[in-house]
């Protein structure tokens, strides 16, 4: 029995020697997989930065135009040359400034036409080449939306804004509209936030101002 046991022990010892001992150092480490950048988060970061820059830009430009000591710059209009003594004079003044927005819409219309006639989308009923003009169409659609809100807000503000402030606010809004639309057009689609905010912020502020004044006129 003792001989058999010694043989078995030798066999087990030999098998232990043959089996490779794997230590923690010998274990193969898997290569680290780098996380791919999230496009949504990247766009959110760009939008946040662009929005902040836009707010600062609008604040500085508004201060220059609206502050009394900068009236001599004659941004948009010379206050001494404007004769506004009635509602209709105000309306005429505001309507004249709408030529800026209409001219931009006209430019966008011809921009869409130029894209269409030089691509497969010359036939609008075929959806095959329509993707080639989708950018131009989106820019034009957004410009029309912003222009309509801006124009109606400006016309409504005639009833609530005094003459001395009106002749400064209307040029300011239209200057921001042009800057916003051009930068929106140049930066579309990835870098459109600054241009969009340049139009959206003045529109939002003016619409809310008109709404507050309207509510005050009803109850106070």
Short description:
The chain is mainly alpha-helical and 220 residues long.
What is the percentage of strand-forming residues? under 5%
Any idea what the CATH superfamily is called?
Membrane associated eicosanoid/glutathione metabolism-like domain
Fraction of residues in helix = 55-70%
CATH topology: Four Helix Bundle (Hemerythrin (Met), subunit A)
Based on CA atoms alone, the radius of gyration comes out at 34 Å
Number of domains: 1
CATH level 1 class label:
Mainly Alpha
The biggest beta sheet is recorded as: none
Specify the number of helices. 6
Structural category is mainly alpha
What does this structure look like?
This protein is an all-alpha fold and 220 residues long. It has one domain: Four Helix Bundle (Hemerythrin (Met), subunit A) (Up-down Bundle), CATH 1.20.120.550. The chain is built from six helices and no strands. It has helices at 2-18, 39-66, 87-117, 134-157, 163-187, 193-219.
Descriptive labels:
mainly alpha, Four Helix Bundle (Hemerythrin (Met), subunit A), globular, 220 residues
Q: Topology of this structure?
A:
Elements: H1 2-18, H2 39-66, H3 87-117, H4 134-157, H5 163-187, H6 193-219
Helix pairs in contact: 2-5, 2-6, 3-4, 3-5, 4-5, 4-6, 5-6
